[in-house]
Amino acid sequence: MKKQLWHYTAQVRLDEIIKSKELKVSEFERKSGDKHPCVWFSTNPFWDPSATKMVGDKLGNVIRLTMPQHLELLGFGRIEVDPSIVVLNWEQYKKISGLKKSEHRHMEKLADGDGSNPKHWFASTQNIDSSNWLAVEYFNGKEWVRYLPDKVD
User: Is residue 14 part of a domain?
Assistant: First the structure.
């Protein structure tokens, strides 16, 4: 069975991503001091909990949405990419990231707490052009289906 790599995101971002014609390296990582910010992927076939977004609440606190909240507020979207273009697994990423070992351990601890598995994580330090996308899908509440954008210029 071939390895499938998915970039999980909010469904509400799919039109923007499609219009840009690329998956872009993480601006958050760039601002956080990572030497090599990445585009992240997972082999988890349903949803990688680490992709669940954080939002600000009414009091200004940053909270991580639960998966049901994420689905209701933002939807689930994903883009499958050609696995031959994603070169870093989690262990390789840790070596080049420039982050401290304590930061890696913290990420792994968070993953363990939310049901993610770092062995499912892969990354690219380069933007991924849409010519390398194999599928764009959203979760309709029951299954993953092909995403057809309403309007993409």
Answer: yes
Count up the domains in the chain and report the number. Answer: 1
Kindly state the DSSP code that residue 13 receives in the 8-state scheme.
Answer: G
Q: Is 15 exposed, middle or buried (0-12, 13-18, 19+ CB in 10 A)?
A: middle
Residues 82-105 have pLDDT tens digits of 999 877 999 998 988 877 888 889
Q: Round to whole Å and give the CA distance between 67 and 70.
A: 5
Residue 71 has what pLDDT? 92
In a domain, 56, yes or no: no
DSSP letter, residue 18:
H
DSSP conformational letter for 36: S
Three-state secondary structure readout of 105-119: HHHHHHHHHHCCCHH
Structural domain contains residue 39: yes
For the segment 101-129, the average pLDDT, to the nearest whole number, is: 88
